[in-house]
UniProtKB/TrEMBL annotation:
Sequence ranges assigned to domain HTH luxR-type in this UniProt record: 153-218
InterPro entries named in the record: CheY-like_superfamily, NreC/VraR/RcsB-like_REC, Sig_transdc_resp-reg_C-effctor, Sig_transdc_resp-reg_receiver, Tscrpt_reg_LuxR_C, WalR-like
Coiled coil: none
Modified sites of kind 4-aspartylphosphate: D62
Keyword tags: DNA-binding, Phosphoprotein, Transcription, Transcription regulation
Annotated source species: Streptomyces glaucosporus
Domain Response regulatory: 11-129
One Pfam match: Response_reg
Protein name: Response regulator transcription factor
Amino acid sequence: MNGPGAESPLRIVLADDELLVRTALRAILGAQDDMEVVGEAATGAEAVAVVRALRPDVVLMDVRMPGVDGIRATELLLEDMGDRAPRIVVVTTFENDSHVWDALRAGAAGFLLKRSAAGELVAAVRLAAHGDSLLFPSAVRSLASRHAPARRGEGLRARLTGREAEVLRLMAQGLSNAEIADRMAVGAATVKSHVAAVLAKLGARDRTQAVVTAYESGFVTPGPG
């Protein structure tokens, strides 16, 4: 896969059972100088095979597909490819669908609504490819309020330092490292170190998984704000 700053275009696979959706996505992404749609799939099983063969940077994965759905396909790819797995962004019609929360729990880097504007789609693919957070705080709170179990967060809190706990809460608000640094009045390098420590202690693959764990454990609660 291409890393951040690579000169070659971002390689993208589209997985959706609707041909019209794949065609629209291909038209939007293929028009970007820094992107190339290298493969398509109409089912989760096809998506797993195509991704294994082509090793893209990003997969746009529909959550609802016949047979193997997008959630199971995400799980299979992460189990099989580990750190070599592409960034998987689930694409959905309904943002409060329990399938979206399940996909995030399975390891998806974030989600997009099918009605998203072209510019939002392009920006999301770039963010995902470069390992940045692709979460919408209000939508994630809404998902968590419906689908995350009601638990207390003492166990997770005990594993984090005070600074790390503060960083995790700000991550759950959707803040970038630069925004967290500004909020905490510390340097960007310090925040980066705290984020790395949080991911390691939570066993999280990325920021999205850390935030999901924070909600699942009850460390962060899906209240207003």
